[in-house]
């Protein structure tokens, strides 16, 4: 067996390990992004409405989150759907995002993507949450979308001032690995792993992916 063929096989195995790792942790990443929304979304809801109304809506929203955290997916889905339908705007958007996450985790990705897309395109939604919807939509497409389309989608989110830059870089790295560009994937994972400002969980995943890719 030639050395060139051996290297090609090793590269294929590295790529497969990397993608298997992503598939195992993809929903965890999405859940982490959704968790970040709670503080921002709670503030948005609190800011837009008077104290008493916001408090009541907050209780309703966190009860739905509690059901989701307890594994009662059907009850959580029903609660988030109700808030999305008749809740006040700030919490309604958050509920739609969590509803989409539940659908994605249950295997109904088309429905989840439709929700993310509708939020990202809605000018009435504050820019912060529209950006989050764009991130989650891109995350859901990473295994099937064209790499160039993914790169275009995440490019605005990779700037130094973006709070989503580490997740955006991680999505870009996965897309590069899936396309067989191990060098680019290692470059992006190295940027994440070396960034002291990156969340610990993302840095740890980046280090593991670098090892899987032979970096």
General description of the model:
- The protein has 215 residues and is mainly α.
- Helix content is 79%, strand content 0%.
- The protein has 10 helices and no strands.
- It has helices at 3-48, 51-69, 73-86, 89-105, 109-120, 127-141, 147-154, 165-178, 182-193, 200-212.
- Helix 1 (3-48) packs antiparallel against helix 2 (51-69), helix 3 (73-86) runs antiparallel to helix 4 (89-105) and helix 8 runs antiparallel to helix 9 (182-193).
- It is elongated and about 50 Å long.
- The relative contact order is 0.11.
- The model is unreliable at 36-49 (pLDDT under 50).
Instruction: Please tell me the total number of domains.
Output: 1
Task: Give a quick account of the main beta sheet: strands, pairing sense, barrel closure.
Answer: none
Percent of sequence in beta strands: under 5%
Structural class of the helices, strands and pairings?
Answer: mainly alpha
Which CATH first-tier class would you pick? Mainly Alpha
Task: Catalogue the unreliable spans.
Answer: 36-49
CATH names the topology as Serine Threonine Protein Phosphatase 5, Tetratricopeptide repeat
Order of helices and strands: HHHHHHHHHH
How many strands? 0
Helix content: over 70%
How many whole angstroms does the radius of gyration measure?
Answer: 19 Å
Number of helices: 10
